[in-house]
């Protein structure tokens, strides 16, 4: 896997926020899979939401897609919204838990 590209993907994902939560979606643990194909020209991302009924779902997924499509190496970017496994606060980074005051 292309480590530099993967780091750029993560960097961009950290710029995407749920409008209701002041922590980025990567640190919230909403990104389940980042897969860059062997040629480093296709990217697949599996992500979830904090709740299936999230009113900002379309906005968040489109924000992810638009930002990742700015990486010129990718000819194709697929963002898949999944709900299994179900998201829990245990998926959050320690920094995100501290920011939100969650133990």
Topology overview:
Elements (H helix, E strand, L loop, with lengths): L2 H11 L17 E6 L5 E6 L9 H12 L7 E6 L12 H7 L3
Parallel strand pairs: 2-3
Antiparallel strand pairs: 1-2
Task: Walk me through what this model shows.
The longest helix is centred in the middle third of the chain and has 12 residues, at 57-68. Helices cover 29% and strands 17% of the residues. 24% of the residues are buried. Strands 1-2-3 form a three-stranded mixed sheet, covered by helices on one side. It has a single domain (3-88), classed as GMP Synthetase, Chain A, domain 3 (2-Layer Sandwich), CATH 3.30.300. It is α+β, with helices and mostly antiparallel strands and 103 residues long. The chain contains three helices and three strands. The mean pLDDT is 95. The termini are far apart.
Number of helices in the DSSP assignment? 3
Helix/strand/pairing category: alpha+beta
CATH class: Alpha Beta
Report the radius of gyration as a whole number of Å. 13 Å
What fraction strand?
Answer: 15-25%
Provide key terms for this protein.
103 residues, alpha+beta, GMP Synthetase, Chain A, domain 3, three-stranded mixed beta sheet, 3 helices, 3 strands, 29% helix, 17% strand
Summarize the structure.
The chain is of the alpha+beta class. The chain has helices at 3-13, 57-68, 94-100, and strands spanning 31-36, 42-47, 76-81.
